[in-house]
Amino acid sequence: MSANINKTPDFVMLSSYPIAIAHIDCDAFFTSCESARDPKLKNLPIVTGKERGIVSCPSYEAKARGIKRGMRLTEAGKICPELIVLPSDYELYSIYSSRMFTIIRRFTPDVEEYSIDEAFCDLTGLRRLYRASYPAIARRIKEAMEEDLGITVSVGVSLSKTLAKLASKTDKPDGFTCIPGYKLHEFLKDMPLEKVCGFGPNTAALLNKSGVRTVLDYIKKPQDFAQKLLGKIGRELWCELRGMPVYRLVTEAKERYLTISKTKTFSPASDNKEFVKGQLMRNMESAFIKLRRHNLSARNLTAYLRRTDFSHCAMEGRLTRHSSSTLDFTQLCSRLFEHVFEDGAAYRSSGVILSDIMDEGADSRDLFEDPVRIENLKNISIAIDKVNSYYGKHTLHLASSNIVNEKGNHPRNCLAWRKQNLLKGESFRQRLNIPLLKMRNLGNQGT
DNA sequence: TCTGGGGTCCTAGGACCC
DNA sequence: TCTGGGGTCCTAGGACCC
Fold first, then answer.
1. How far apart are CA A81 and CA A67, in angstroms?
2. Which of the nucleotides in strand C have any atom less than 7 Å away from a protein CB atom?
3. Helix, coil or strand: residue A195
4. Fewer CB within 10 Å of terminal CB in chain A, N or C?
């Protein structure tokens, strides 16, 4: 087979649209939702992300003034004093998102919810139904989005998901780009490799070394070249970019999480062991809050720390059973921290990853553990969640994460302090004795 | 893009077994 | 006891995405 593949030096294209895939990408989605809700914000420089202190999504007006994603809000405010800063409202964005998918499903049932603000849809075979060409159908979807949702979108139509996404990206905002088979050659002629979804900077650099600089260069190489240099992804993208689709639309709803992680950067960096540990424990608490919100339980926990030079070290540990109780994992997390933390090193962020996740209650219980005790720990977590939903997130928290709250204030006045003393009690410590199956070192790698 | 946070997938290579 | 070959499973970490 590979011998045959190697003998395809030139790619030959193709009728206009043997297959028609559309990619629909909302323009500056979060801020577009905000100004769709409140039209007074239209055409103004606005950003979301107030709660995190960094720009999460700048409107095009803000972008035009030099505001970029990830920028600190203080810096953004200096560049653009009239900037309007809004907190993220994920509930609003979810509502708009599901409306968007509903609108597209009016035209075709084959819709993939690719992300909160992006969709793929398969238009193949719909020309007779709509008495229109594929571009004309895609145009109608775009117009429906703008009319019914009040948000502009950029649309790409082509022969595969990768090409459709590439097309929608070339003209933003409010763009409409169709790449039929016979135009592929021209479209890809000067297209930089990094524009392809799946080629990052590293892959582009590697391809450059072989003299491949544009997407057209890439697909003119034999398939074997792509396979050998970049493996499975390389081969698949090679096909997709030639207009031979290999990625199917995933039209089923996403079932559940494989991992849940929580990371937080702290500034300034710190070499204070208690403080860094507190940050880690706080992340663990946040991860478990999310886990319980989705009625899931986890068995593995990875703790990692990032140094000021961005190198990191991590270690994973495992319980004998699945659990959704924070208190089941505190001891494990502490032990992992002890292995990972180096005296004298300064750290800038910490994080945890929960993995081996399954539905709550699906685990067969460990035979050697007391079911009453397990139930008690679970009830404690539920009770803590209830208190926190009333008084605010992390009002009630682990003693070990309390240092995160101390910003020069004495913690004695807050509810946390009382909880801290409670958790330090001997009876609690005895209860936390969960056997560990294993801990493994995840290395000590630079990035 | 000198770097915020939350994810997924792929793969080389080690461990283990026959 | 040493040796070879081959298969499977696991995992650390790279790369990429939004």
1. 11
2. 11-18
3. helix
4. N
> How far does the CA of A38 sit from the C1' of B10, in Å?
44
> What is the value of pTM for the model shown?
0.82
A401 domain-assigned: yes
**Encoded amino acid at A218, one letter:** Y
Q: Flag whether A383 is in a domain.
A: yes
Assigned domain for A301 exists: yes
Active site residues of A: 118
For residue A395, the enclosing domain spans: 260-405
Which positions of chain B lie under 7 Å from any protein Cβ?
1, 3-12
Among the ranges given (A24-33, A272-281, A435-444), the one the predictor scored with the smallest mean pLDDT: A435-444
The rounded distance, in Å, linking the Cα atoms of A117 and A103 is 13
Q: How far apart are the first and last CA of chain A?
A: 38
- Token code pair at residue A400: 């070990």
In this structure, are strands A312-323 and A260-270 parallel, antiparallel, or unpaired?
Answer: unpaired
Q: How many domains does chain A fold into?
A: 2
A315 within some domain: yes
Question: What number is the average pLDDT over the span A213-221?
Answer: 95
Rounded Cα distance, A300 and A375, in Å = 20
